[in-house]
Design goal:
It is a single chain. The chain contains 22 helices and ten strands. The chain is of the alpha/beta class. The chain has two domains: 334 residues, ABC transporter type 1, transmembrane domain (ABC transporter transmembrane region fold, Up-down Bundle), CATH 1.20.1560; 262 residues, Rossmann fold. The strands form two sheets. A six-stranded mixed beta sheet has the order 6-7-8-3-9-10, with helices on both faces. The longest helix is centred in the middle third of the chain and has 54 residues. The protein is elongated, with a radius of gyration of 35 Å. The two termini are 60 Å apart.
C-alpha cells in the first residue's frame, strides 16, 4: 500500500496538480524588484487580452500621430506671426495666421477627444476582460483555496490591483505613445529651425535619466507597500463586517481592540500614502528644475544670437514653445517608468492569481454523466489535507500563515465502501473521524491522495465537473444563503425552473406555507447568509433548493444538528420526501436519524472500523454499540436543543419584524 501511495503522489506532482508554481514564478517571485520593467512574458500576457481590440489600437495610434503633427504646427505659426505678419506689418497675413492657429487648435482638440474615446474603450475593455477572467478563475478554485486565503486579499486583486492596470491603459501607455511620436516630430522641427540650439537643449536630457534612476526604486517600493497595506485593511473589514464577524465582535465586546487594530492598518496605509505623495512631488519637482535649467540656457544662448542678428525673435519664441514640448514629454516619459513599475506590480499580482493552478481541475475529454442513477464507490482511499502552498498563495494568506505540515496526518486511511442506486448509507463516529471528509470527496471538493473515488462507475477525476455536481447534491449543517430573495436562492439550483416547480419543491420541503405568509412572499430578502431566517427555516430552504436541483445522490452532513425538536421533525419529514428514489450518504451524530439506513459505516481515526445495519452493529458490541448505549439510554430531558428555539418555525410563529 505504501508503494502505491507514493506512486500516486508522484503522479499528482508530475501532472502539475501539486505544488505547481512554474507558470507564475516566471512573472514574479519574492520581493519587488526596484528596477522592475515590463518583461517579455508579462507583455505577451497583457497583449493576449488586448489583441481583440487591435483595430481600435491601430486607430488610436493613427490619431496619436495626427495629434503629434498638429502639435508641431502652432510654434511655426507663432514664428510666422512675429517675423512675417508683425515684422512686415501685413494685416491680411496676420488675420490668416490667427485663423490657422484657431483651426489647428480645434483639429487638435477633436483628435484628442477621439483618442480619449478609443483609449477608454481599449483600456476599460482590457480591464473588464481581465477582471472577468480573474473572477472566473478564482471561483473555480477548490474550497481549500478559500479556507486558506483572506477574502479581503482576494477581492483586492479584483479591485485595487486591477485599478493599477486600468491606470496604465487609460493614461500611461497612451501618454507614452503620444510622447514618443511628439518628441520625434518636435526634434525634427527644432533641428530645422536651429540645429545648434537643439543640440544645446539635448545636453540637458541626461539629467532626466539621472533623476529617474535615483528615485523610481523608492516610489516602486512605496507602491507595492501601499497595495499590501490596502489589501490587509480590506481583509479586516470584510471579515468583521460580515454578519458572523459582526456578531462575534458584539458577543465578545471588543470594539476598542478592533478599532485599534483597524487604526494600525489604516495608519500604515496613511503613512505610505503620505510618503508616496511627498516623494512623487519631489520627483516631479526635480524634473521641473531640470526643465527650468534648459529653458534658461536657451534664452541665454538664443538671446545672444538674436542680439548678434543671427536668429530672429520669432524663432526664439517658436523654439521656446518647442522646448516646452520637449522637456514636458521628457518629464512624462521619465516619470512613466515609475508608473509602469507600479503597473508591473499590479499586473504581476493579478497574473500571480491567474497563473496559480487549481488543485481541482477538469481533465480534457472529461466524461459527461447523462443519466445518473446514484451509484458511488470509494476504493482504498487515503486522504490528508494539502499543504498551504499547494492550494493558495502566501500573499493571499495575510500576516498569519500556517507553515506546519505533517505528512503522517492522514484524515482517511484505506477507506472502501459502495453506495448502490437507491441505497442509504450512514457515516457515524466521533468528531474528527473523517466523516465530512468522505462527503467532500464525492462531489470532488477535494481529491483523494491515493485510491479511487467513483460516481456512476467513473473516477471523479475523469468526470466533467458540471455533470458531477449535477449528479451529487449536498445539504450541510449550516447551509449558506445569499443576501437575496428566497426566489433567487431557490432558483440558484436551476435558473430555468418554472414558478410551479419552485413552489412544488418548497411544499415538499415544508417551507411554502411560511414563505406564503411573509409580506413579500418568495421575494423576501433573507439577509446575509440567511440570518433573517431561523436555523430550521434556512435548512428547509436549502432542502427545497436541493430538490429543485434533483440530484441522483444526496449527501446530508449533519443536516438536522443543533435544531430543536419541532424543526428537526419538519426537516426529517422534508428529507424523507427528498430522499425518495435517490441514493443517500447521511452523516449524523444522532444515531436515531440513521437506524433505518441500509448500511452504517462506523469511522474512527480515519478508518472504517465497523459496518452493517443498526441491529447488527448494536449486537456486535463495538464502538457503535457504545455510542448507541450512550445516546439511547440518555434521559429525554437531557436531549440537546438547537440555539434557534421554536420561534419562527411555522407560519403562525413568524415575527414580521425580521422582514421589516
Amino acid at each position: 500500500m505504501g508503494v502505491a501511495l507514493g506512486q500516486a503522489e508522484d503522479e499528482c506532482r508530475d501532472n502539475g496538480e501539486v505544488n505547481s508554481f512554474a507558470g507564475w514564478r516566471m512573472l514574479h517571485s519574492g520581493p519587488v524588484d526596484d528596477d522592475a520593467t515590463i518583461s517579455r512574458e508579462l507583455l505577451v500576457r497583457v497583449w493576449g487580452f488586448a489583441r481583440r481590440y487591435k483595430r481600435k489600437i491601430a486607430a488610436l495610434l493613427l490619431l496619436i500621430v495626427v495629434s503629434s503633427v498638429l502639435g508641431a504646427v502652432p510654434p511655426l505659426l507663432y514664428r510666422a506671426v512675429i517675423d512675417k505678419a508683425i515684422g512686415d506689418k501685413r494685416v491680411g497675413l496676420l488675420n490668416l495666421l490667427c485663423v490657422a492657429i484657431l483651426l489647428v487648435a480645434f483639429a487638435s482638440t477633436v483628435a484628442q477627444v477621439a483618442s480619449r474615446w478609443f483609449v477608454s474603450h481599449v483600456g476599460e475593455g482590457v480591464i473588464f476582460d481581465l477582471r472577468v477572467a480573474l473572477f472566473d478563475h478564482i471561483q473555480r478554485m477548490p474550497v481549500a483555496f478559500f479556507t486558506r486565503s483572506q477574502t479581503g486579499a482576494v477581492t483586492s486583486r479584483l479591485t485595487n490591483d486591477l485599478q493599477g492596470g486600468h491606470r496604465v491603459f487609460m493614461e500611461t501607455l497612451t501618454s507614452m505613445a503620444s510622447t514618443v511620436f511628439g518628441l520625434a516630430v518636435t526634434l525634427v522641427a527644432m533641428f530645422v529651425l536651429q540645429w545648434r540650439l537643439t543640440l544645446l537643449a539635448l545636453v540637458i536630457a541626461p539629467l532626466f535619466i539621472v533623476v529617474t534612476r535615483r528615485m523610481r526604486g523608492r516610489l516602486h517600493r512605496l507602491m507595492a507597500e501601499q497595495m499590501d497595506a490596502n489589501a490587509g485593511m480590506n481583509a479586516q473589514m470584510t471579515e468583521r463586517f460580515q454578519v458572523g464577524g459582526a456578531l462575534l465582535m458584539k458577543l465578545f465586546g471588543r470594539p476598542r481592540r478592533e478599532t485599534a487594530g483597524f487604526s494600525e492598518r489604516a495608519g500604515r496605509l496613511r503613512d505610505v500614502g503620505i510618503d508616496t505623495a511627498v516623494y512623487s512631488r519631489v520627483f516631479h519637482g526635480m524634473f521641473g528644475l531640470v526643465a527650468a535649467v534648459g529653458i534658461g540656457v536657451l534664452y541665454w544662448a538664443g538671446g545672444h544670437m538674436a542680439i548678434e542678428g543671427t536668429l530672429s525673435l520669432g524663432t526664439i519664441v517658436a523654439f521656446t514653445a518647442y522646448l516646452t514640448q520637449l522637456y514636458g514629454p521628457m518629464t512624462m516619459l521619465a516619470g512613466a517608468r515609475v508608473d509602469l513599475a507600479g503597473a508591473v506590480v499590479s499586473f504581476e499580482r493579478v497574473f500571480e492569481v491567474l497563473d496559480f493552478p487549481s488543485a481541482i481541475a477538469e481533465r480534457e475529454g472529461a466524461v459527461v454523466i447523462d443519466q445518473p442513477a446514484g451509484r458511488a464507490e470509494l476504493s482504498e482511499v487515503w486522504f490528508r489535507y494539502p499543504r498551504s502552498t499547494d492550494v493558495t498563495l502566501t500573499s493571499l494568506e495575510g500576516e498569519h500563515t500556517d507553515s506546519g505540515y505533517d505528512e503522517r496526518a492522514w484524515v482517511l486511511q484505506d477507506v472502501s465502501f459502495t453506495i448502490e442506486p437507491g441505497q442509504s448509507v450512514a457515516l457515524v463516529g466521533p468528531s474528527g473521524a473523517g466523516k465530512t471528509t468522505i462527503a467532500m470527496l464525492l462531489p470532488r471538493i477535494y481529491d483523494a491522495v491515493a485510491g479511487v473515488v467513483k460516481v456512476e462507475g467513473h473516477d471523479v477525476r475523469d468526470v466533467s465537473i458540471e455533470s458531477l455536481t449535477g449528479a451529487v447534491g449536498m445539504v450541510l449543517q449550516d447551509s449558506h444563503l445569499f443576501h437575496d430573495t428566497i426566489r433567487h436562492n431557490l432558483l440558484y439550483a436551476r435558473p430555468d425552473a418554472t414558478e410551479t416547480e419552485m413552489i412544488d419543491v418548497a411544499r415538499a420541503a415544508r417551507i411554502h406555507d411560511l414563505v406564503a405568509s411573509l409580506p413579500d412572499g418568495y421575494d423576501t430578502v433573507v439577509g446575509e447568509r440567511g440570518h433573517r431566517l431561523s436555523g430550521g427555516e434556512k435548512q428547509r430552504v436549502a432542502i427545497a433548493r436541493l430538490l429543485l436541483k434533483d440530484p441522483a445522490l444526496v449527501i446530508l452532513d449533519e443536516a438536522t444538528a443543533h435544531l430543536d425538536s419541532e424543526s428537526e421533525m419538519l426537516i426529517q419529514n422534508a428529507l424523507a420526501e427528498a430522499l425518495q428514489g435517490r441514493s443517500s450518504l447521511v452523516i449524523a451524530h444522532r444515531l436515531s436519524t440513521v437506524v433505518a439506513a441500509d448500511q452504517i459505516l462506523v469511522l474512527d481515526k480515519g478508518r472504517v472500523v465497523e459496518r452493517g445495519r443498526h441491529d447488527e452493529l448494536v449486537q456486535a458490541g463495538g464502538l457503535y454499540s457504545e455510542l448507541a448505549r450512550i445516546q439511547f439510554e440518555r434521559p429525554a430531558g437531557n436531549r440537546s436543543s438547537g440555539p434557534n428555539g421554536s420561534g419562527g418555525l411555522v407560519a403562525r410563529a413568524v415575527d414580521p419584524r425580521r422582514f421589516a
